């Protein structure tokens, strides 16, 4: 794997503890970048924090390793990722839904701390660049401001997903901070937080228009557009979301993930699967190297049996059996999962494919890829009445997912796909797009966002260790986190 490590070269020396007014009630220090650091060094600190262990405020918890920690949280909340064994017990609180209804749960506090650390860190960069209302004049300052506001918006977006039952514009939601030295704040409404998200990302799209990032570990204009598309879709502003999702597809040159890249092929030995940031369809991720110091305590250490991992010793995390059974036998994605526990050994794996072979993690983290915007564009087009275009986009994606039975395949004309998609309309079309989203993005942290957008109800398969065959709607209290009791006790506005 080619290694282009820019962010990691900053090292952990950037991650210095500082104190602010917010720390008293959020228990979330700013980015923990040195006060004397430059804005770019502080930005690099945020990027590193996304892959660093302990950023949720713990020293020992093996589910505390940055953004990918919370991708697993989301996949389990959606019920699409089944915890199938509890040998060591990580994630039992989420899988059993005990943590979701318990404000004193360490699980909820970790997510709360992490995202507010990102926010406070981004606020620190924004302050250095002149503050929220400043209009940068130099290209360098514009690009740093665009990155900081994109990262802040992304953190607020995830807080809204994890700590609210669903979109309700007037409902009190979470505290909102736009400077690193703010006093304790009351809850803002969801609409107020989304307004900040939209403002941040709209400005970032402008500021990042000519930004040529050093590597895909950094955000750029396409990432800002992608996050804004997700935000609009979460609010039900589907036409606006569709425009942005189509721009991500059409304007940045990211190709669809190919059939060969989707899955490791035992017959041909082709090294497909999701482990390399150089995959052309990947838009945003992190190029993990030995210098990052990841091992058992990592996303790979929780999910991949070819890494020294919990997944290799009984704490299996597999696809929900009901979802697996819904995948067509002619769909290549079905082969991503193996064994009776349906673990993703052919989608996510260390390329050496030796059980427990990867001790120091060098397989990469994925945050975003272009394929998800085909699905988001199709979903939001269908919801806004543009069904013909939604079907066209879906067929482009599924054409490279389903086996084509014709002896001379014509791109975009797979008859299996046409037979599946063309007859659908209305609710049936929307449900099929939602199902395809769950299949395509399994294990990538996006299923929970789709569950919330579609106000879906899920029935767990019988391969879950807890709550087998139980049906749960998206807004059930077991499907999102309560604001941590620590915040309630320490914030005088609650």
SSE order and pairing:
Blueprint: H1 21-26, H2 39-49, H3 67-77, E1 81-83, H4 92-95, H5 106-128, H6 139-163, E2 172-175, E3 187-189, H7 190-207, H8 221-235, H9 238-251, H10 259-262, E4 282-286, H11 299-303, E5 317-319, H12 321-325, E6 365-369, H13 371-383, H14 387-398, H15 415-421, H16 426-440, H17 447-453, E7 457-459, E8 471-473, H18 485-490
Antiparallel strand pairs: 1-5, 2-3, 4-6, 7-8
Number of helices: 18
Tell how many strands the DSSP assignment holds: 8
Helix content: 40-55%
Question: And the CATH topology of one domain?
Answer: Serine Threonine Protein Phosphatase 5, Tetratricopeptide repeat
For the sheet with most strands, the description reads: 2 strands, antiparallel
Order of SSEs: HHHEHHHEEHHHHEHEHEHHHHHEEH
Low-confidence stretches: 1-32
What is the terminal separation in angstroms? 49 Å
| Binned strand content | 5-15%
Cα-atom Rg, whole angstroms? 21 Å
- What does the average pLDDT come to? 92
Q: Please give the order of strands in the largest beta sheet.
A: 1-5
If you had to describe this structure to a student in words, what would you say it looks like?
Helix 13 (371-383) packs antiparallel against helix 14 (387-398). The chain is built from 18 helices and 8 strands. With 494 residues, the chain is mainly alpha-helical. The protein is globular, with a radius of gyration of 21 Å. Strands 1-5 form a two-stranded antiparallel ribbon. Strands 2-3 form a two-stranded antiparallel sheet. Strands 4-6 form a two-stranded antiparallel ribbon. Among the domains are: 14-253, Alpha Horseshoe (Serine Threonine Protein Phosphatase 5, Tetratricopeptide repeat); 371-458, no CATH class. The longest helix has 25 residues, at 139-163. Helices cover 41% and strands 6% of the residues.
């Amino acid at each position: 794997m080619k290694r282009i490590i820019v962010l990691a070269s900053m090292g952990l020396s950037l991650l210095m503890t500082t104190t602010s007014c917010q720390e008293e009630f959020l228990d979330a220090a700013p980015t923990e970048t040195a006060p004397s650091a430059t804005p770019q060094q502080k930005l690099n600190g945020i990027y590193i924090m996304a892959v660093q262990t302990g950023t949720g405020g713990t020293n020992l918890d093996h589910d505390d390793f940055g953004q990918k920690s919370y991708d697993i949280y989301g996949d389990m909340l959606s019920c699409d990722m089944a915890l199938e064994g509890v040998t060591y017990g990580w994630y039992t609180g989420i899988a059993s839904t005990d943590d979701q209804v318990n404000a004193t749960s360490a699980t909820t506090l970790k997510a709360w701390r992490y995202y507010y650390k990102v926010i406070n860190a981004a606020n620190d960069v924004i302050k250095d660049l002149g503050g929220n209302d400043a209009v940068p004049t130099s290209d360098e300052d514009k690009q740093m401001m665009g990155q900081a506001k994109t990262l802040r918006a992304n953190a607020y977006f995830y807080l809204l997903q994890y700590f609210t039952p669903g979109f309700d514009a007037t409902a009190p939601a979470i505290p909102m901070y736009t400077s690193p030295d703010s006093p304790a704040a009351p809850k803002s409404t969801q609409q107020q937080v989304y307004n900040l998200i939209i403002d941040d990302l709209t400005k970032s799209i402008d500021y990042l228009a000519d930004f040529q990032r050093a590597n895909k570990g950094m955000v750029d204009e396409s990432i800002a557009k992608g996050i804004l598309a997700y935000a609009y879709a979460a609010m039900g502003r589907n036409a606006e979301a569709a425009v942005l999702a189509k721009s991500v597809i059409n304007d940045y040159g990211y190709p669809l993930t190919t059939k060969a890249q989707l899955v490791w092929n035992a017959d041909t030995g082709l090294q497909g699967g999701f482990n390399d940031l150089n995959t052309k369809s990947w838009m945003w991720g992190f190029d993990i190297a030995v210098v990052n110091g990841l091992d058992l305590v990592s996303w790979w250490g929780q999910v991949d049996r070819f890494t020294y991992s919990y997944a290799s010793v009984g704490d299996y995390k597999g696809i929900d059996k009901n979802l697996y059974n819904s995948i067509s036998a002619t769909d290549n994605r079905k082969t991503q999962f193996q064994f009776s526990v349906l673990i993703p050994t052919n989608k996510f794996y260390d390329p050496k494919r030796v059980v427990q072979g990867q001790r120091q993690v060098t397989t990469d983290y994925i945050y975003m890829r272009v394929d998800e915007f085909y699905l988001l564009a199709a979903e939001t087009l269908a919801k806004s009445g543009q069904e013909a275009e939604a079907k066209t986009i879906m067929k482009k994606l599924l054409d490279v997912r389903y086996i084509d039975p014709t002896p001379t395949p014509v791109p975009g004309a797979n008859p299996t796909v046409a037979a599946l998609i063309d007859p659908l309309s209305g609710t049936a079309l929307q449900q099929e797009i939602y199902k395809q989203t769950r299949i395509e993005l399994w294990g990538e942290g996006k299923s929970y966002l789709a569950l919330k957008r579609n106000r879906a109800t899920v029935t767990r398969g019988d391969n879950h260790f807890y709550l087998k065959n139980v049906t749960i709607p998206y807004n059930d209290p077991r499907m999102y986190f309560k604001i941590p009791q620590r915040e309630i006790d320490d914030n005088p506005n609650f």
